[in-house]
Amino acid sequence: MRRFSPAFLIPALIAAPALGHAGLVDLILGKRDLEVITVTDLSSTGNFVPAATPDQPQYYVAASLGYRDLGGYMAGIEAPPSEVVLHLISAELAKQGYVPSTAHSPAPTLMLVYTWGTLNAENLYGGDPSAPPTQLNRGQIVRFLGGQKVGMDDNFFNPLTAPVRGLTVYNFEAERILDVARESFYVIVVSAYDLESALQKKRLPPLWTTRIAAPSLGFAMGDVFPAMLAIGGAQFGRETPRPVWINANDKFTPSVTLGELRLVEYLQDNPLPVADVSDAVIEKK
């Protein structure tokens, strides 16, 4: 992954984020490869639930939490319509064997919850314009990217217990995650809950949660979501011992653009039975 952070470019990229995702970044950095990082965590209960397959599907009802800015806020990001994102997520789930419940299907056993949006680096700039900013949420991004699976637990960013950099030897994967965590990301999160327990309002952790992330600089959200799902969807419901890090080259990208039949053929054209609970969550907060 290329690194480029001259101080004179920071004001331009902040003042024009929409341009930064397209022409300006390509002009300065050249075209970047799309990198997708996927992490799936299983709970103790989820370890006893096998992942779905096309031959042995699992049926679900779903709720959408909608678009979220999970990290710092950045103006100018154009999110694709919710119905487009929901169809992409549902189509990839169906490809992996997770099928929305209907009146004619077997009874559902899962409740799936979706959310997507950004996980932007939150930087604090001091009075010296030549000094690098202080990133306030690097630990949050490291955890999202699966840092705990490569040796960085919650104590890693605790000032009382964190190891001193330079005296500690990190493994390659930890170094890589720590390095890329300086960037901002587009993210998709799918969590699966036991439906019966959810209906009984039992407070149990999800059976599994899959987090898909891709660095956002140089890309438009609507352009990369299909590729993120096509790459990361294979990990739905499947524990990842390490973060799965895949570089999508130019030959791969065109096969997962919006409207590609292979992404939608697993679902019929009927409206998706996904409850939108995003407004309820916002009001509760």
Describe the structure.
This protein is α/β, with parallel strands linked by helices. Helix content is 27%, strand content 22%. The chain has a domain at 32-120 and 184-277: Double Stranded RNA Binding Domain (2-Layer Sandwich), CATH 3.30.160. It is built from 10 helices and 10 strands. Strands 1, 2, 3, 4, 7, 8, 9 and 10 form an 8-stranded mixed sheet that branches. The protein has a two-stranded antiparallel ribbon with strand order 5-6. The radius of gyration is 20 Å and the shape is globular.
Write the topology of this structure.
Blueprint: H1 10-15, H2 17-20, H3 23-29, E1 34-42, E2 58-69, H4 82-96, E3 98-100, E4 110-119, E5 123-124, E6 134-135, H5 138-144, H6 172-180, E7 185-194, H7 195-199, E8 208-215, H8 221-232, E9 244-248, H9 261-264, E10 274-276, H10 278-284
Parallel strand pairs: 2-3, 2-4, 2-10
Antiparallel strand pairs: 1-8, 1-9, 4-7, 5-6, 7-8
Helix pairs in contact: 4-8
Briefly characterize the structure:
The chain is α/β, with parallel strands linked by helices and 285 residues long. It has a domain at 32-120 and 184-277: Double Stranded RNA Binding Domain (2-Layer Sandwich). It is 27% helix and 22% strand.
Main sheet characteristics: 8 strands, mixed
Label the overall shape.
globular
Note the total helix count.
10
CATH domain class name of one domain: Alpha Beta
- Rg calc: 20 Å
Structural class: alpha/beta
**Count of beta strands:** 10
What is the strand content? 15-25%
- Give the CA-CA distance, first to last residue: 38 Å
Name of the CATH architecture of one domain: 2-Layer Sandwich
The proportion of residues forming helix, as a percent range, comes to 25-40%
Q: CATH topology of one domain, anyone?
A: Double Stranded RNA Binding Domain
Order of helices and strands: HHHEEHEEEEHHEHEHEHEH
Q: Residue-averaged pLDDT, rounded?
A: 79
Uncertain spans? 1-29, 250-266
